[in-house]
Design brief:
- The protein is mainly alpha-helical and 101 residues long.
- Helices cover 60% and strands 0% of the residues.
- It is built from six helices and no strands.
- Helix 2 packs across helix 3 and helix 2 crosses helix 4.
């Protein structure tokens, strides 16, 4: 099976997911969290560092459960657009005026 390259948005979302999981893990060891979630420590490390930007849903569900995170909270955190991504370049008042004319 050939995997398509990830989009920049998918890579960014994977990085936000990794940061969220690292913050939620806090002082707990990666090994303890991984074993409790029934995933390999290497898998957790790759997710936390953003090397696996699109992990399988059951993997994220298991890790979130161990960390006490709701999946709604995880989705809300990782799907938030970055402030610079909110408006395309040139999409200010002048762009709106061009659309109106």
């Amino acid at each position: 099976m050939v995997r398509l390259p990830l989009t920049p948005a998918e890579v960014e979302r994977g990085q936000r997911l990794g940061a969220l999981l690292r913050r939620a893990r806090g002082e707990r060891s990666m090994l303890d969290v991984a074993l409790a979630a029934h995933v390999s420590p290497e898998t957790l490390r790759k997710i936390e560092t953003g090397r696996v930007a699109t992990p399988a849903f059951p993997t994220i569900a298991a890790i979130a459960d161990v960390l006490g995170l709701s999946l709604d909270a995880v989705w809300a955190e990782i799907s938030r657009p970055e402030p610079d991504a909110l408006a395309p370049a040139g999409a200010g008042r002048h762009a709106q005026e061009r659309l109106a004319s």
